[in-house]
Design goal:
The complex is a heterodimer. Chain A has four helices and one strand; from the N terminus they run βαααα. By secondary structure, chain A is mostly helical. The N and C termini of chain B lie far apart (44 Å). In chain B, 45% of the residues lie in helices and 15% in strands. The radius of gyration of chain B is 17 Å and the shape is globular. The chains are: A mainly alpha, B alpha/beta.
Chain lengths: 62, 207
């Protein structure tokens, strides 16, 4: 079968599609910080990202 | 007979995962979630649907119908369990996906662990080449790159493996905190997908 080619969904669209809750985000964000995923954050974050990931940006702005 | 429900709206980026829920498969399951999310696809599986209410088949069919594509891993169609019988769920659900392709734009992809085994176990599918993952997470990611793409191309294998590595760490910690042995639980699944989204976005793989 040929490749399935489609424009990628955005993070927001995927979150909405699987019904991510605020609690899910908070738990996952905490664990990602604990395992060091955010140790070297990218520098091109948008205001939209800052709204979604306040802990990540708080750490980045320290 | 349960009356058919009206079809749910199709999520164009939704991909239904019809895969074994056993401990040995967990690393591949995580790889599929990591890879699909990094490709901007929404992984779905039957864990999302509540277990009460409609019967299991209806839930599976409804979820599959709401996705534009599905992945069917037939690598565990072997004799197993106390009765030593083959597990027919995966091929049965593949049949449902085939039926969907006859009435909609749904596409399905078949995964196998070993080459040429599918031709022996399911010769009706001889015109569909399975994607072989060798039973490894990297193999599962390689299969995804063979099945899915975006108009601007695909991320590198290295990028997908990096997402998978971080997702493994998160899943382990999450499972320990929730005292659940594997990722095949509704809450764990949703949070693992949530993490995959954040990791992929953090690495600029998705917007």
């Amino acid at each position: 079968m040929a490749k399935n080619i489609r424009p990628p969904a955005t993070a927001e669209q995927i979150q909405r599609a699987i019904g991510v809750t605020q609690e899910d985000r908070e738990i996952v964000e905490r664990i990602l910080r604990e395992i060091g995923e955010y140790d070297d954050p990218p520098r091109d974050g948008s205001p939209e990202e800052e709204k979604d990931y306040p802990l990540l940006f708080a750490k980045r702005n320290e | 007979m349960i009356p058919a429900e009206p079809p749910a709206p199709v999520d164009g980026q939704g991909v239904f995962l019809n895969v074994p829920f056993d401990a040995d498969y967990a690393p591949l399951f995580l790889a599929l979630i990591a890879g699909l999310t990094a490709l901007g696809r929404t992984p779905h599986c039957v864990l999302e649907a509540p277990s009460g209410g409609r019967n299991r088949l209806e839930r599976i069919f409804g979820l599959m119908e709401s996705c534009s594509a599905s992945i069917h891993d037939l690598s565990r169609v072997t004799l197993s369990g106390p009765h030593g019988v083959p597990r027919f769920n995966m091929p049965f659900e593949l049949g449902m996906a085939y039926a969907l392709t006859r009435k909609s734009a749904h596409e399905f992809f078949v995964l196998e662990e070993r080459p040429f085994r599918l031709q022996a176990s399911l010769s009706d599918l001889n015109s569909h080449d399975p994607h072989i993952h060798d039973g490894t997470p990297s193999g599962a990611l390689r299969c995804l790159l063979g099945c899915f793409a975006t108009p601007s191309g695909v991320p590198s294998m290295q990028a997908l493996e990096a997402v998978k590595r971080h997702l493994d760490k998160l899943a382990l910690k999450l499972q320990r905190e929730m005292r659940i042995a594997g990722p095949f639980h509704p809450y764990i699944f949703r949070r693992i997908v949530t993490a995959a989204i954040q990791i992929a976005r953090h690495r600029n793989l998705i917007q």
